[in-house]
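A reminder from the course coordinator: this example appears on the midterm review sheet, so study it carefully.

Given structure:
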């Protein structure tokens, strides 16, 4: 693959993003950045949310992880359907009824200022971690495919990536993101589909025989019924429901897009259609993962091993030796080095589109939450000062993401998709507990207790996760339940009573 040609392709792609940014941002007012003036078509939001939900993590990490976990990831994806139904039928009516700019405004109305600020801070932590992990992944790919060729260090690759995101979102905000996410989702799915086609050509497999080739790989097991491991169906299905409910329904990033729809019914249609299409999108990436291992085995360039901490070996073209690699590196290595220049270019474009579709909205949502929830923008009247402050906050979070990504570069040691879910269990759990207690009980609780409860409960959850019982991703609902119980212990009286 020619790095120069790939770089030119990416520059052309970003030129399109900047055109979209100019069109959507030229008539933007103060509200446009935060809610797109509630003018987004629901189908556009639904399609764009696919890319934001899957991101570069799914594009790279899920196919590689198939070698270790087969298709058991689908157990979590099936659980998503329950979570998304809860969002559409329970959370969206609440958000639209209260006409919220930030969803954490509900916590202030229900409990008080401490709950409100605590919820916003936990979201900020959650999204900084998630967005940084996703951008870290695309940074590795860009480094391998392009930047190493030009002698550009990793820190500079990350800085360039974040600067580009800032430049095309700083004016139009969420209105720009809704449109750019649509383009990015298209390229991400196109990248996966084209790679499947190219592998089938390399293996001389017709389209009708693809399912047989995938099935014969031995890497399509979906259901694990043994209760002991964390990959048990019930543990992952329940976890999937809560992951969707929290990482989408209680996440300002994902909900900010939905709140730009014209009506509640439009927002609900968006959620239902998006959740169905998401099933097929994940099946596409899992199928791609199986085919990568089939292709690698047939060509003698990939070996699945489970010894000395190594899980997969890939042929090094320079030395001719099989070298241990992380499973996250399998898809990039095969696309960039073995499947030809078209596959390499399509892969880089796909992973860039996938990663930026979640990172741009994350930066916008972080800026929105900090301005609205922490700085109380809705209570300010000086529009010029608000605009200046918003620019500074936007730059500030871009710098925070930059530093966090460099930290992950020194620490990452596992498939990134699982690291995101592990982090989510500790940061989204308190949000789950607070919203559940507020919506499903009649009690008020001591607002002054809430920050302490939301710090203690994740710590207890961590110690439970370190015990001999493998709870898998059930740490998220466990954390939420502990927070719920903490709020119940601090209850004072029924809402509205004297």
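Designed residues:
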């Amino acid at each position: 693959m020619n790095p120069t040609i790939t770089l030119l392709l990416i520059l052309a792609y970003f030129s399109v993003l900047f055109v979209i940014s100019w069109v959507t941002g030229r008539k933007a007012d103060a509200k446009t950045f935060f809610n797109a003036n509630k003018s987004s078509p629901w189908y556009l939001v639904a399609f764009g949310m696919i890319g934001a939900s899957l991101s570069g993590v799914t594009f790279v990490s899920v196919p590689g992880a198939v070698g270790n976990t087969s298709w058991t990831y689908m157990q979590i994806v099936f659980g998503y359907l329950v979570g998304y139904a809860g969002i559409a039928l329970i959370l969206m009516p609440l958000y639209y009824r209260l006409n919220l700019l930030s969803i954490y405004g509900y916590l202030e109305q229900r409990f008080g200022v401490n709950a409100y600020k605590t919820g916003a801070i936990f979201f900020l932590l959650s999204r900084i971690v998630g967005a940084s992990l996703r951008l870290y992944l695309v940074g590795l790919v860009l480094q391998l495919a392009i930047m190493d060729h030009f002698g550009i260090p990793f820190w500079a690759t990350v800085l360039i990536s974040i600067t580009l995101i800032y430049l095309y979102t700083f004016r139009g905000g969420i209105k720009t993101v809704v449109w750019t996410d649509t383009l990015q989702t298209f390229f991400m799915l196109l990248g996966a589909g084209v790679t499947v086609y190219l592998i089938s050509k390399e293996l001389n497999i017709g389209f009708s025989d693809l399912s047989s080739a995938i099935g014969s790989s031995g890497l399509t097991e979906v259901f694990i019924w043994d209760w002991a491991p964390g990959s048990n169906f019930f543990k992952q299905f329940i976890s999937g429901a809560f992951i969707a409910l929290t990482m989408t329904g209680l996440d300002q990033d994902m909900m900010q897009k939905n709140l730009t729809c014209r009506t509640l019914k439009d927002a609900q249609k968006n959620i239902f259609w998006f959740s169905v299409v998401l099933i097929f999108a994940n099946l596409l990436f899992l199928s791609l993962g199986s085919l990568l291992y089939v292709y690698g085995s047939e060509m003698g360039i990939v070996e699945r091993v489970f010894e000395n901490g190594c899980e997969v070996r890939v042929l090094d073209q320079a030395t001719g030796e099989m070298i241990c690699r992380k499973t996250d590196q399998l898809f990039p290595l095969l696309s960039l080095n073995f499947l030809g220049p078209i596959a390499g270019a399509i892969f880089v474009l796909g992973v860039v589109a996938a990663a930026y579709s979640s990172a741009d909205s994350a930066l916008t949502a972080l800026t929105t939450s900090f301005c609205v929830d922490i700085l109380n923008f809705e209570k300010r009247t000086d529009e010029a000062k608000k605009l200046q402050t918003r620019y500074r906050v936007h730059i500030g979070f871009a710098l925070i993401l930059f530093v966090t990504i460099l930290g992950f570069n020194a620490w990452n040691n596992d498939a990134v998709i699982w690291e995101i879910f592990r982090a989510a269990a500790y940061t989204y759990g308190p949000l789950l507990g607070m919203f559940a207690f507020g919506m499903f009980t009649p009690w008020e609780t001591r607002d002054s207790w809430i920050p302490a409860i939301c710090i203690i409960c994740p710590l207890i959850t961590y110690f439970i996760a370190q015990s001999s019982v493998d709870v898998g991703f059930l740490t998220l609902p466990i954390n939420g339940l502990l927070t719920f119980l903490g709020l119940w212990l601090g209850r004072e009286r029924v809402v509205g009573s004297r």
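Residues 113-150 form the longest helix (38 residues). Strands lie at 302-307, 310-315, 322-325, 443-445, 491-494.
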